[in-house]
Design brief:
single chain; 376 residues; alpha/beta; seven-stranded parallel β-sheet; seven-stranded mixed β-sheet; 13 helices
Length: 376
């Protein structure tokens, strides 16, 4: 069985989609009878070789390194030349349209993986008037796919409410070998930041974008005061914003080490369609403080975290304090156990293969055997 993933959402600094596809390539590569390929824009984050195929695409200014294909024909031709048994499209843009067209021409199943709440994202930028037309466009686009997958129950329900009735929930996972408490070095990070040892290190990791509600995080830090300090991972360089906040540069390879060196993850974003960094922090043994919006509440329970109302800095600060009052280390141990038991990629990908099998693709039964996570 040859599975081809096609997407424009793949760049040097891209987040959950890139990590999903990287884990998928490693896991599928260990499965007998399964071959996996990837077709993505050419750029610093993707070079051809070892099953990775690239096509030229124009840089998208201000996007953090994403590239946007301008012509559909090269993508159609590349998909046809690769001759997959199933194609999965990770976006509704030109690669997604090419995947749908090629699948119909070749008579193979097409799966659309909806990683983003596109109507809500565009609605926030263009105004509320855009949400309806965008939803209608998305409904027409996904009508050409045999199956639509979404990473959270929240997004799955939104897609079905738009009339995309063949949408199904397919959660993402986490590499529990890479994201592990043993990779942390708290003393080294505290020293690097120039902070006293008793500091309570809070960490946010992701794009430093407006919709991530960093304003809530910073306002909550002013309320919390000493000994709390916030580390924002995802900036261009290390910088001390004020006496309570420090930025660190984006670091794909070092993210696990930074997370495991902190005391708790904080995430005030209200529009997450999954929140992969929540699972990564949990796997590193961190409790999580999030908000009661988007898909994050699906991942956070009182046994390993707290939730606050969205947009409320005072309540968010109270939730952070509550985590430490409840023994953040004990919550973190439960978070790690939960991630390892229920959210490891080895527990997630067999479900994905089962989706493929229901489309008539010959995924061998042996491929459903679990394989340990990790890069080895």
């Amino acid at each position: 069985m040859h599975v081809l993933d096609v997407t424009a959402l793949y760049a040097e600094r891209s987040g959950g989609v890139r990590r999903y596809l990287g884990a998928k390539r490693r896991w599928f590569g260990r499965q007998p009878g399964v071959h996996h390929s990837l077709l993505v824009p050419r750029g610093p984050g993707a070079r051809p070789g070892d099953g990775v195929h690239t096509l030229p695409a124009a840089p998208l200014p201000g996007s953090g390194g994403y590239r946007f294909p301008l012509h559909e024909r090269p993508w159609r031709e590349a998909i046809a030349a690769l001759a997959p048994d199933l194609v999965e499209a990770g976006d509704p843009w030109i690669p997604g349209h090419a995947a749908r067209y090629a699948a119909q021409r070749q008579g193979i199943p097409a799966v659309g993986f909806c990683h983003s709440d596109v109507p809500r994202l565009l609605g926030r930028r263009l105004g509320r008037w855009a949400a309806g037309p965008v939803a209608a466009w998305l409904r027409r686009f996904y009508a050409g796919f045999d199956l639509v997958l979404a990473p959270s129950a929240t997004l799955t329900q939104r897609l079905r409410a738009m009339g995309i009735e063949h949408a199904h929930h397919q959660p993402l996972g986490v590499d529990v070998a890479l994201f592990h408490p043993r990779h942390g070095d708290r003393a080294a990070l505290v020293a690097r930041l120039g902070l006293p040892a008793p500091t309570r290190l809070l960490v946010y990791a992701g794009r430093l974008a407006r919709e991530k509600r960093l304003d809530v995080l910073r306002a909550s830090m002013r309320r919390l005061g000493a000994p709390y300090h916030l580390v924002l991972v995802g900036a261009e360089r290390m910088a001390r914003i004020d006496d309570r906040v420090t930025t660190l540069p984006f670091q794909e390879a070092g993210l696990a080490r930074v997370l495991a060196s902190c005391d708790a993850l904080v995430h005030a974003g209200e529009c997450e369609t999954f929140g992969l960094v929540v699972l990564e922090a949990m796997a590193c043994g961190l409790p999580v403080v999030g908000v009661e919006a988007g898909a994050v509440p699906e991942l956070v329970r009182p046994q390993w975290g707290r939730l606050a109302p969205p947009g409320d800095a005072a309540a968010f600060a109270g939730a952070v304090a509550a985590v430490f009052d409840a023994d953040h280390r004990a919550l973190g141990r439960t978070a790690r156990e939960t991630a390892e038991r229920h959210h490891a990629w080895r527990a997630v990908f067999p479900t994905l293969l089962a989706h493929y099998r229901r489309l008539g693709v010959a995924a061998p039964t042996a491929a459903l055997e679990p394989v340990p996570d990790g890069h080895g």
